[in-house]
Amino acid sequence: MEKYFVIGNPINHSLSPKLHNYWLKEKNINAVYEKIKLEENEIENFFSKIKNQDINGCNVTIPFKKTVIPFLDKLSLEAEQTQSVNTISFQNNNLIGHNTDIIGFEKAMTELNYKVQDKKIFILGAGGVVPSIIFALNKMEALKITVSNRTYKKAEDLKSQFDKINIVKWGETPDFDIIINATSLGLNNESIKLNTSIIGQGKLFYDVIYNPNKTNFLKLGEKLGNQIENGKSMFIYQAFEAFRLWHGVEPNVDEKILELLDHD
Ligand code: ATR
After folding, report:
1. How far is the CA of 64 from the centre of ligand 1 (A)?
2. H or E stretch including 181?
3. Atom 14 in ligand 1: which residue has the minimum CA distance?
4. How many separate domains does the chain show?
5. For a FRET experiment, which of 56, 140, 175, 235 has its CA 20 to 30 Å from that of 246?
6. Tell me, what's the pLDDT at 187?
7. Share above pLDDT 70 across residues of the chain, in percent, rounded to a whole number
8. How far, in Å, is the centroid of ligand 1 from the Cα of 150?
């Protein structure tokens, strides 16, 4: 039986096993997908095990998307450019790092029927997933990307990868069409300070978080009369792409999948 894992810390909250195991069963694939909590100093050993073919592939989540890179043999172009790996495949004794968060975000936007081209984007946060979102937005030809992070330096550091982005201080609200919350604020239902008087309507409020379903950030967007969307379909589509990479078939994404993730 093939073995797949998601590694991270914390990992308890991860819905990846539920989703992948559902799809594995549906496609009659003889494999199992589990979660493993690792400490940073256990990562090297974990990867030597993968090399011995005990493990067929894995997903990587917070806080190891960058940490794993030195232990891999090859990176996809997207993983290289974002320095972020969320999926690892095993090919001819080589460990290949991929980034399926990018396509996950792109597909989420496409599914929403939202045209990103020529839009002004405001991103809150500069953590693990932000390079992937910026990469995807650039691919979709966004007009202008502004980033704001509580720790200013971390936002500024993104400029070495993406020289065209603008940075504003935490608490400032620039003009935008789409605002993306990529901070972990909201997991515990805290609020984000925004200058609501200049926001207006016809905007898209997007939260990378999908549990809770509607963060205070999304509630605010809704109250202001704007379109809102959480990160559930981005999560589903990054998993979809990982599944396709590993098993060579496309799993189904339908109402049942949305319900499966709701009941948690
Ligand atoms: P990491 O920063 O380790 O990659 P992450 O979960 O991917 O972790 O990112 C957390 C993001 O949420 C960061 O942008 C963080 O801001 P800092 O860089 O200043 O830490 C942001 N964040 C977390 N708690 C926050 C809070 N109470 N107020 C504002 N931003 C917060």
Report:
1. 15
2. strand 178-181
3. 125
4. 2
5. 140
6. 75
7. 98
8. 7
